[in-house]
Specification:
By secondary structure, the protein is of the alpha/beta class. The chain is built from 14 helices and 12 strands.
Length: about 400
C-alpha cells in the first residue's frame, strides 16, 4: 500500500486518439486496392536499379557529366557537411552568394537564387509571384511541378494547346484585368520538342504578359557554354523568370531562378519553398560550379551528342512511330500501357536500359518508350539499338 500526495502541482495530460484496428485495416485495404487497380491498368511503378549493367538510354545525364571525376573529385576541402539551416537563419554562407554571382553571369541575368531542385524552384516561383486576380496561361504539356505551382497560387489559370500560338493568343485576348503570365518549358521532357520562344515573347509584348520559362532540359546543352535555349536565342532580357535545373545535363543537383534583383528579393521574402528549406551544402554548391565550368571548356560534348542524335534519327525506318525531336529525348509512341511495357521489355532483353512512360505521366493513348541519347553512347550502341527497334516494328 502506497500513499501518494500531490500538492501545488499542475499535471497536463494529453490523450492521443487511438485508431481503431478496423479503421486501420480499412485504410490499408483501400491503399491495397488502389495499387492493385494500377497494376491491372499497367501503370504500377516500382524502383529499379541497373543491376544487369544495361546500356544507359534512360538517364537525363545527357553529357555524361555525372561521371566526370574532375568535377566531383575536386581538391577543395569540405568546408562543412551541411549548411545547418535555411538561408534566412544560419544557412546563408559565403559560398552560396559566390555561386549565385557566378550563375547570374553564366546565365546572363541580373541575379540568380539557388533552390534545392528544379521541382522546388518551379513551385517557389509560381506559387508566390502570381496573385489573386492575375491569370496564368500554361502549356498543356507542362511538367507536373509547374501545374502544382500554379495550383498553389491564388491566380486564375488555363491550359493552352501544346505549342499552339493561335490558341495561346485566343486566350490572351479574353483576359481583361490583372497581371498575365505565360508559362512554358524551353524543351519538353517527354516529347523532346522546343517551345516557339521567339513567337511567345512577341505575343507577350503585344499583350503585356510576363513569360516564365523552365529550362530544365536545355540547361547545359544549348549555347556556347550550355546556358540554355533562352540565352542561345538572345531572349533572356525579355523573359521575366528562367528556371535552371542542374540535375539533368549538368549531372549534379540543385537549381536556380534567374531574373531581376527585384524578383530575387521578392522570392527571398515570400517564397515558402525558399524560406523554410535547409540550404544546399558546400559540396553541392562546389560541383554545380565545377560542372558548369567543365561544360564551358568542353563544347565538343554537345557537338558529339548532336551527331549521335542525327545518327539515331537517320537510322530509324519510317514505319517506327517516332516523335520529331532534335533533342536527346526521343519518344516512340506505342499507344497503350501494355504495348509500351512489352516494347520496353523487348529492348531490355537486348541489353538496353529504356523505360516505358505511361499515363498519367503522358496522356492516355500516347504511352511510349522514352529514349535518352548521351554523348557517351557509342555509334555502335546507337546503331545496334536502331536495328532492334526497326526489327520490332517490321
Amino acid at each position: 500500500m502506497f500513499d501518494c500526495v500531490i500538492t501545488n502541482l499542475t499535471v497536463n495530460v494529453i490523450i492521443l486518439p487511438i485508431i481503431p484496428m478496423k479503421q486501420k485495416m480499412n485504410l490499408e485495404k483501400q491503399l491495397f486496392e488502389q495499387l492493385q487497380n494500377r497494376k491491372i491498368n499497367g501503370g504500377y511503378r516500382s524502383l529499379k536499379t541497373n543491376l544487369n549493367q544495361l546500356i544507359d538510354f534512360s538517364s537525363n545525364d545527357y553529357l555524361g557529366l555525372s561521371k566526370v571525376e574532375e568535377i566531383h573529385n575536386s581538391h577543395n576541402d569540405f568546408i562543412d557537411n551541411g549548411a545547418t539551416g535555411s538561408r534566412l537563419l544560419s544557412g546563408n554562407k559565403v559560398y552560396h552568394e559566390e555561386v549565385e554571382r557566378f550563375l547570374s553571369v553564366y546565365f546572363k541575368s541580373e541575379s540568380a537564387l539557388l533552390f534545392n531542385s528544379g521541382y522546388v524552384a518551379n513551385l517557389g516561383v509560381l506559387s508566390t509571384v502570381p496573385q489573386k486576380g492575375d491569370t496564368i496561361l500554361l502549356d498543356e504539356l507542362s511538367h507536373i511541378c509547374i501545374k502544382e505551382g500554379v495550383r498553389l497560387s491564388r491566380a486564375n489559370y488555363f491550359n493552352f494547346k501544346h505549342n499552339d500560338l493561335y490558341d495561346l493568343e485566343k486566350k490572351l485576348k479574353k483576359i481583361e484585368a490583372g497581371n498575365i503570365f505565360i508559362v512554358v518549358e524551353s524543351v519538353y521532357s517527354m516529347d523532346g520538342d522546343q517551345a516557339p520562344l521567339k513567337e511567345i515573347v512577341n505575343l507577350s509584348a503585344q499583350y503585356n504578359a510576363n513569360v516564365i520559362v523552365d529550362e530544365a532540359h536545355s540547361t547545359g546543352l544549348y549555347g556556347e557554354s550550355g546556358f540554355g535555349l533562352c540565352c542561345d536565342l538572345g531572349l533572356q532580357d525579355q523573359i521575366f523568370a528562367r528556371i535552371y535545373t542542374f540535375g539533368k545535363a549538368v549531372g549534379v543537383h540543385g537549381a536556380a531562378v534567374a531574373g531581376s534583383n527585384l524578383l530575387k528579393d521578392y522570392l527571398i521574402n515570400y517564397s515558402r519553398q525558399f524560406i523554410y528549406t535547409t540550404a544546399l551544402p558546400y559540396h553541392s554548391i562546389q560541383v554545380i560550379q565545377n560542372a558548369l565550368n567543365y561544360r564551358k571548356k568542353h563544347p565538343e560534348l554537345w557537338n558529339d551528342l548532336k551527331s549521335r542524335i542525327s545518327l539515331f534519327n537517320s537510322l530509324l525506318k519510317p514505319r517506327v512511330n517516332k516523335l520529331e525531336s532534335k533533342h536527346p529525348v526521343q519518344g516512340i509512341i506505342l499507344g497503350s500501357a501494355e504495348e509500351a511495357i512489352k516494347f520496353s521489355d523487348y529492348l531490355k532483353g537486348n541489353g538496353f536500359d529504356i523505360r516505358p512512360i505511361l499515363s498519367p505521366t503522358v496522356p492516355k493513348g500516347k504511352e511510349r518508350v522514352r529514349i535518352c541519347l548521351h554523348a557517351f553512347n557509342s555509334e555502335e550502341e546507337i546503331t545496334t539499338l536502331c536495328q532492334h527497334i526497326n526489327k520490332y516494328f517490321q
